[in-house]
Structure formats: structure tokens, C-alpha cells
Amino acid sequence: MSISILTRVSTRTLPEERVTTTRRWPVVLAAAVVLVAVVVRLTGTKVGFLDVPAVQAWTTVFVAIVIQATPFLVFGVMVSALIAVLVPPSFFTYALPRNQALAVPVASLAGAVLPGCECASVPIARRLVSRGVPPAAALAFLLSAPAINPIVIVATAVAFPGRPEMVLARLVASVAVSMTVGFIWIKLGRPAWTMVKQRPESVGRTRLERFAYETRHDFLQAGGFLVIGAMAAAALNVLVPQSILTSIASSPWLSVLALGLLAVLLAVCSEADAFIAASLTSFSPTAQLAFMVVGPMVDVKLIAMQAGTFGRAFALRFAPLVFVTGMVATAVVGLVLL
Fold first, then answer.
1. pLDDT by residue (tens digit) across 215-235?
2. b/e 117-139 (16+ beta carbons within 10 angstroms → b)
């Protein structure tokens, strides 16, 4: 009888182990690519095809994105693990209004108090959904946190000295996008699109052990897709000719769309995107605003991370919705404030 019970228990744990194992392949691939790229870039090693200028440009952009985003991803998964260990699920039922229409603006404005980039917000949003927060409110927080947190606001003010209207425009447009997407998700979103797999609660472990377990799990899951997204962003950086972007800058409205798309392709961290936007002096202020509003909310690495966290069905609907909403909000705010 005891052998039978042990066998059944062991059999029930196998699917979870298989899921964990299959999700590690992006991490193994990422670790190999990162190791090779970093060694080549730091040592100046000349290795066959790696000497090709396009490949060198790819490795430079790829390493820059990964190194830039990793600290914020670690910060995000640590905050996510702290929520899992220290905050009881019942807390969120009291902290957020039960009415989703009220929870969305509250969650959107809550993003202003949490320093972090877009990579950090994905695991935190996943944790909020798993703790019972309405998906629309969690997604509003996911969009606003990397766009309006204090570090980003200060960075924008430094990048555009003497132009407070750019800071105000970024703040207003970003909050408008996060709230609008949240309200749309209340009406059109389906629970299956944000289904988060529940992991069994750790029993018999100390809080420190649970914190280490949750941090390791979220980092392995999100880190692999971050690297895959960075690989795609680096490839697009190399493949899109700069001459095409320069010719587009001459058209006011086309330039807004171009910088919105460029933000998706470049996948720059929200703490640094204001400096890149400020350097694009041939584009209009509204186009520069589009780069700063769209980038922290939807880019190639974020799409990969969101697909890995919530599933492809979610990413296929969420990314276009956020991009279109971001472009419309940018155009309206740009006309009024810039």
C-alpha cells in the first residue's frame, strides 16, 4: 500500500518537472549565446564570421540590450517573489476597488511609485494576476509602471532640458494608454487569454527558501524570453537601413508612425529611451513622444516575454491593441501639448 501511494505521488510530480525542464531550453540557448557574445566583445577575439561588420553590430546591440535589461529583470523577479512570500492573497481584495472600472485607474497610477523598467513589470503583472487581481488592472499596471515611474520621469527631464512639456506629455500619454487598454480589456478580454498556471504553494519551507525558489523560477522563465527578444531586436537593428528612416523623417505624420515602429524594433529600456529620442533631432516632438510612449509598452523583447508568461493568444491580441492605442494617444497629446 505504501509503495502504491509513493508511486502515485511521484507520478503526479512528473508533469511539473517536465514543464520546468522544457521551459529551460531558452535559458540554455540564451546562456550559450550571451557567453559567446560577451567573450567575443570583451576580448576582441577574431573568430571567422564574427569579424563580419554586420555580425559585430548584431553582437554589440544584443549584448547592450541584455546587459541593460538584466538588472531591472532581476529587480522585477525579486519584487514578484516578495509579493509571493510576504503579501497574502487577501491583501489585493482590500487594496484595489472591487469594481474593475475603478481598479484600472488605481493600478495605472500605482505604476508611478515603483521604479523599474518594462522587463521588471512583466513578472510582477503575472504575480498580480495569480494573486487574484483583475487582469485589466494588472495589465494597466504593466503598461504604466515602466513609463511613469520616478526614474523614467527624471531621465526624460534630463534628456529634454528646458522642455517640461515633453515630460508632461509623456506622463499624460502613458497614463492615458494604460487606462484605455485596461478599460478595453474589461470589455473585450477573455479570462483564457491571461490564464496563469498556478504553482503549488511551498510547504515546509522558510520564507527565505520560498523567496529563493520564486526568484529562481521567474528569472529562468522570463530571462530566456528576454534574450530571445534581444536577439530579434538586434537582428532588426542590423537589417533595417538607416537611410529609409531618414527619408521618412521628412513626413510629419509618417515620422510619428516610423518612430513608434522603431521603438518596437529597438527594444530600448525605458530608463534610457528618452536620451535616444532626444538625439533624433530630425523628427518632430510628437514623433519623439511616440518613441517614448510606445517603447516601454510594446517591443520585440516584451512581446517574447509576454508570450512566454501569458501565452501566444494573449501576446497576439495585446501587442497590436497597445500599439494602436499608443499611437492614437501620442497623436492627441502631441497636438495639445507639443
1. 887 777 667 666 776 777 677
2. bbbbbbbbbbbbbbbebbbbbbb
